[in-house]
């Protein structure tokens, strides 16, 4: 059995301003930096150790990981955030109110040069599966990624009602999952 700890990046300027942030990037705020350091301290205090670490290729994720631990890590394109096309950098109030529904945004962003929900979810699930398949049995992995990545990954594993009831995707949230070589199992929200 292998263990995956999946973490969201710290608060960014666009998070603070309520801007759509998928393929585009913005820097961590002072709060984002402080929260990432606090998450690292939480992990150390609770004796979490990681054999390998990974990050999205986006700066907000890699910066968060570097604040959480000084371990070497690999950056992965497959776990970067959803591409929202022309909505990148726009106010979040312009987005459809369908995010926490069974279809989520479906194909909405395709007409604006972004990714469909299905393509995005397939990319994310494939990336996590490929990495965890290569990890030796018994190892613990930390991956820092994004809110929609975490949401769509869990959506592929558990019912929507369970996600809404049991999971928060706040900045620096940490989820624990296991991988038996064939399937992922969501265990708990650690932080």
TrEMBL record:
Looking up Pfam families in the UniProt record yields: His_Phos_1 (PF00300)
Which PROSITE patterns does the UniProt entry name for this protein? PG_MUTASE
SMART domains in the cross-refs: PGAM
Which terms in the Gene Ontology molecular function aspect does this entry carry?
phosphatase activity
Tell me the InterPro entries matching this sequence.
Answer: His_Pase_superF_clade-1, His_PPase_superfam, PG/BPGM_mutase_AS, PGM_Phosphatase
Q: Which GO terms describe its cellular component?
A: cytoplasm
Where does this protein hold substrate?
Answer: 8-15, 60
- Tell me the superkingdom of the source: Bacteria
**PANTHER family under this entry?**
BROAD-SPECIFICITY PHOSPHATASE YOR283W-RELATED, HISTIDINE PHOSPHATASE FAMILY PROTEIN
Q: Name the chain's protein.
A: Histidine phosphatase family protein
């Amino acid at each position: 059995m292998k263990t995956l700890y999946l973490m969201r990046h710290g608060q960014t300027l666009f998070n603070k301003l309520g801007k759509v942030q998928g393929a585009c990037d913005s820097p961590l705020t002072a709060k984002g930096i402080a929260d990432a350091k606090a998450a690292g301290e939480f992990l150390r205090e609770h004796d979490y150790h990681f054999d390998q670490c990974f990050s999205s290729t986006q700066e907000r994720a890699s910066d968060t990981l570097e604040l959480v631990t000084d371990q070497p890590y690999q950056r992965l394109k497959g776990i970067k955030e959803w591409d929202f096309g022309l909505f990148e950098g726009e106010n979040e109030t312009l987005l459809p109110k369908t995010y926490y529904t069974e279809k989520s945004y479906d194909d909405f962003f395709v007409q604006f040069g972004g990714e469909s929900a299905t393509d995005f979810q397939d990319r994310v699930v494939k990336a996590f599966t490929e990495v965890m398949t290569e990890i030796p049995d018994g190892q613990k992995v930390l991956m820092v990624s994004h809110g929609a990545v975490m949401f769509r990954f869990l959506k592929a594993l558990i019912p929507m009602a369970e996600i809404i009831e049991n999971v928060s995707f706040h900045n620096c949230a940490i989820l624990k999952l296991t991988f038996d070589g064939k399937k992922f199992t969501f265990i708990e929200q650690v932080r």
